[in-house]
TrEMBL record:
Residues 53-391 form the Leucine-binding protein domain. InterPro entries: BCAA_transport, Leu-bd, Peripla_BP_I. This is ABC-type branched-chain amino acid transport system, substrate-binding protein. It comes from Chitinasiproducens palmae. Residues 1-49 form the signal peptide. The keyword Signal applies. It comes from the Bacteria. Belongs to the leucine-binding protein family. Keywords: Signal. The keyword Kinase does not apply.
């Protein structure tokens, strides 16, 4: 890629804020291992399009029971692509290539292989803990950056230098909300309903560890299978436990059913959750009104031009207020554009290896919601907010720094 003159770079950045310049289980395991191995033979991680475009990937659930997450994630990413191209931040048109992970690890590996081998994307957007853990070895060995804005399993912080998180992870979210619930809401007796997967198990462990020092107790925890939609037995056991608060650690259609069946069976205690509640289906669910959940802190009324533009254009394009998930994926694309523009300015190719070096060098980035930086493990450092569902887009009730 030819060097970009400094004056040309300055012209392209003039329209953005100053801060932006800176089968059986065994069979499935065998199939997953084979797919991973196949993806390591041809991967280069280079973005060398000769048609005037620069392509990055998006490995998101576009079908299946978690498709709403893919639509929400993609809404933010698509808007960011449009803004990057409208502002001519890069010398080439930025293109986002989607592959459907269905939120399943094996499908994720197949999609990641295609994005890395066929489209040679230097960066891939991903989400969901299981998918992220499955594709991380491909990212690491092919030196392709994978950016997660939706999965929150704590072990996502340990997937290597090419795996980045632009979302606080579940352990940080749980640690943030516990003092608020106990001290401000006076809710001390917790019951947990969690999906029996690595994410749910990690939240169970975090609550059991963090509640006693804060003055609370985990009275009971109930695991539910990932595909389950009927919770009558669990609801009865929750009622018998007489909690002050019910914490739900699930996602997608399952979490909606848990909330609905609790309320339909007369269990009316306070409900709380983590950022998986940050989707339109939950926020529009009458039975979820009043529920509390955590997300990364986003001030939609912030005066900076980037946030104002994001909120206004998101509402105009989609007819609703943005969510934290949409902002995360908008920011993931914006982060790529900042790093790629820096590489172009220095006359370097836009590869995963060079993107990593640029992120480590620049350190601070002005994105929607304010300036952010990354820990050494590639996870964003950012404040967390507690939101309450009100049926009208939600209300921020507390901010934890």
């Amino acid at each position: 890629m030819r060097p970009i003159r400094q004056a040309s770079l300055a012209a392209r950045l003039a329209n953005i804020p100053t801060g932006l310049r800176a089968a059986s289980s065994a069979a499935r395991r065998r199939a997953l291992a084979c797919a991973v191995a196949a993806g390591l033979t041809l991967a280069t991680g280079a973005a060398h399009a000769d048609d005037g475009t620069l392509t990055i990937g998006a490995l998101l659930p576009m079908s299946g029971p978690n498709a709403e997450y893919g639509q929400t994630f993609g809404s933010g990413a698509d808007l960011s692509i449009a803004h990057v191209n409208d502002d001519h931040i890069l010398s080439k048109k930025l293109v986002l290539r989607y592959e459907d992970s269905q939120a399943l690890p094996m499908q994720g590996v197949l999609g990641m292989n295609k994005l890395v081998n066929v489209y040679e994307t230097p960066l891939v957007l991903t989400g969901f803990t299981g998918v992220s853990k499955a594709v991380a070895p491909i990212a690491r060995r092919s030196r392709t950056v994978a950016v997660n804005g939706g999965g929150v399993g704590p072990d996502l912080a340990q997937l290597g230098p090419y795996f980045w998180n632009v979302i606080p992870l579940a352990n940080a979210e749980v640690r943030a909300i516990i003092p608020y619930l106990i001290n401000e809401r006076k809710l001390k007796r917790f019951v947990l309903i969690y999906v029996d997967d690595p994410l749910g198990q990690s939240i169970n462990q975090e609550l059991a560890q963090d509640l006693p020092p804060a003055g609370g107790t985990l009275a009971a925890s109930f695991a539910v299978p990932a595909g389950s939609q009927q919770f009558g037995g669990v609801v009865a056991r929750v009622r018998d436990a007489r909690p002050d608060l019910i914490f739900i650690a699930s996602y997608g259609a399952q979490q909606s059913q848990i909330v609905k069946q609790l309320r339909d069976n007369g269990v009316m205690q306070q409900i709380a959750s983590y950022s998986a509640f940050s989707i339109p289906a939950i926020n529009a669910l009458p039975e979820a009104k009043g529920a509390l959940y955590t997300t990364q802190r986003f001030d939609w009324d912030a005066p900076d031009r980037l946030t104002q533009r994001f909120v206004a254009d998101y509402k105009q394009r989609y007819g609703r207020k943005p969510t934290a998930y949409a902002a995360n994926y908008y920011n993931a694309v914006r982060l790529f554009a900042i790093l790629a523009a820096s590489l172009e300015h220095d006359g370097k190719p836009v590869t995963g290896q060079n993107l990593l070096a640029a992120r480590q060098r620049l350190q601070h980035f002005d994105l929607v919601g304010g300036s952010v930086s990354f820990d050494a493990n590639g996870t964003v450092r950012a404040p967390i907010q507690v939101n309450q569902i009100d049926g009208a887009g939600g209300t921020v009730v507390s901010t934890i720094r």
